[in-house]
Specification:
This protein has 126 residues and is mainly alpha-helical. The protein has one domain. The protein has helices at residues 5-17, 19-27, 29-38, 41-53, 59-65, 69-75, 78-94, 103-112.
Length: 126
């Protein structure tokens, strides 16, 4: 399914308003619970916008998505530094295949427009 610009804008706003609900709605209910459980509240919207719409996040999340934990640690605020392992658990268990793993993977995910513009696919994340 591909989305027109108006619908993408609406979904982007949904992720600002309630990222867990938006992620549950478009990625699957149990996946939204993973976002709530593992990702700090102040980071959920950015991660949900990236996964759902392909909107590239800031440098910390990009480092996490690239699985560059050294850079992620260097760029993390105090809360995220202590919670870094939870991002790994989230990506392994609740993120769609293909959305992380390398700079090339996250660039391709972004160009394709995120989960809402991808054909259904299985497989392991990252």
């Amino acid at each position: 399914m591909t989305m027109d610009a108006y619908r993408r804008s609406e979904l982007s706003q949904e992720t600002f308003d309630d990222p867990v609900e938006a992620y549950s709605k478009y990625a699957g209910g149990e996946l939204g619970e993973g976002l709530r459980r593992w990702i700090p509240a102040h980071m959920r919207a950015g991660l949900a916008r990236y996964i759902l719409l392909g909107i590239l996040p800031g440098s910390f999340l990009r480092s996490v998505l690239q699985t560059d934990l050294i850079q992620a640690t260097a760029k993390a605020d105090e809360v995220n530094r202590e919670q870094l392992y939870k991002y790994v658990l989230f990506l392994v268990n609740y993120a769609p295949a293909g959305c992380c793993g390398s700079l090339e993977a996250i660039q391709q995910w972004s160009v394709r427009g995120g989960l809402v513009n991808q054909p259904a696919r299985g497989g392991a994340p990252c």
